[in-house]
Request: fold
Amino acid sequence: MRKSIVIRPESCLGCRACELICSFRLSGSFSPHNAAVTVCRLEGRIPAVPLMCMHCSAPACVAVCPTGALYRDEETGAILLEGEKCIRCGRCAAVCSLGAVRRGADGGQMIKCSLCGGKPACVDVCPAGAIDLVDSAAVEEAAAPEKDG
Amino acid sequence: MYGWTGSILRVDLTEGSVVREPLHMDRARAYMGLQALASAYWQAECARDAGAADNRLVLMTGPLTGLLGPCTCRYAVVTRSPASGEIAGGSFGGHLGAELKLAGYDGIVVQGAAERPAYLRIVDGTAELRPAEDIWGKDVDCSDRWLRERCRPGAGTLVTGGAAENECAFSVAVGDRIHVPDCPGLGAVMGAKKLKGIVVSGSGSLSVSSPEDYLAKAAEARQAVLDMPFSVALGSASVEVTLDLMENLHTRPAEGYRAGARNADWNAPSGGCAIAGRRACYSCPVGCRKIVQSERWSGVMEGMAPENIRAFSRFWDARRLEDHIRAHNLCRTYGMAPTACAEAVDAWMRLAGMRAARTEKPLGREDTETVLRLIEDIGTGRGDGRGWGVGAPALAKDHPESFLEKDAPSVYDRIPALTPGDGKTAVREKNALAEACGICPLAAAALDAGLLREMLEAAVGPSLIPADIDQAGGRIRAFIQVSRIEGGAQ
Reply:
């Protein structure tokens, strides 16, 4: 069954545990600036918002990728990046409205969420339930416009 | 090397130089980090009667700071406080400690004094002093925003408010805009050195010796912290639980505060203010900093921590939560230690005849605006405010007849962080080791000694663990106490 990431900004504490575990899974070290999720810290009532790939139904990054390095995994529904095909042109980062595709801090490899093969580590580590994984069908139903009558 | 980056920054404000130098690894292995390691640096480099320029300001992280773990966010700042003449050490949460490690440094030693206001900007391997005339005398919010605009998003900051520049003896530096340590004098040292603030952003990475082992132990430790009753209490924001916490810590608030506290509830308090959310430090699963929203204010107030409510308990009971928050927020804005500021305002009111001498009776609602105005006068140095900024100990010395006896000798008594005061030496030593490694005192209380040692071993590796790791906590605790005494503590 396809799953979707759901973000609840009102629950986020801004602790950056998601960034830390994500970078650890990607590189084996703790490096928040090299994670596929970015915790955007704010002032005011909502302390922070985790920004990450929402694996859109019509992904602009896939459409602009000149080499086909970005593709959708049919099993999990995740948009994945095939590193060997990627030429690091940065078009995907330029078109993503969430800034969810980024270049690593060393200026090389593009980084984006792969849903950790269907079991995202950020969901497990979040102490406040600000990042969740739910059935895609439920998300689509909630996002669908209400019909009159 | 794991755990430590192996480098510190030496900032000479007189020369205007910023130089990277190797971390003293013998000291680091003996004292791990934070207050103990910072004290070791201060003691080795600074005479007890050092003047403003020779006085060192040492900022130090710990070997676990910056990793994913149970509140592994802490850093400490140690200097000699002009308020008390003692070594003043404050431990901070927030993000600056982790950003500093990610930028490649374990700590910063600041010496000398600048001719013109300056701030220290660290972005990865580039560290430089820059002019800060534009924000000299400005409050914490304004200065913090100004510094962040000159760095990368998400940077960590440590800034002083207007009180430091007004030579207020109990001024502090405020971490990440909301962390106000109760260590009077830190801001005054920065003010004397003309160092307005520090802003740090690091994009490096921190490795551990045994990654999967470390991750497993860190997950266990985080769960232990979440399961601890304190964490549940701090998350729920109940005043009643906060009071119980204070009782456990042997830091009893004033009688008037306790009397009215049992019926109070932070979620439905007077004045139409309520807890709207929580903010956590780096890698903290608890989030004890409250975001408070009020019908009377257009915005929100952040950063109220449980221990802060004690500061103004000499004026109001817990049902006057809004007054507590407004007073705390003024201290935060001007960069003043809340407890010492409350004492100074109390002294001012007693000596000026606005409050009866030698009484604990809480103030009436009509006096709220007076208290807030006096805090503001001290923070801004307006009118008589600059004079009252010398602090209550100095005032009590000249006018002992006006003060309660318990106020006079040790007005700068601090809450011993959130360390449970169960009197067991082993527990205190374990907590001391955890804190020296960079773990928040709250989380330290949740960890048992075995888990802490395993986590530390997995992080730094067996070669860097002191051979007498089981005695390290006792050594660290004793060293902090001895260094305070040698630094002039009574």
User: Anything to note?
Assistant: The longest strand of chain B covers residues 195-201. The interface with chain A takes residues 66-68, 95, 98, 102, 153-154, 177, 202-208, 211, 215, 219, 222, 226, 276-287, 291, 293, 299-300, 302 of chain B (CB under 8 Å).
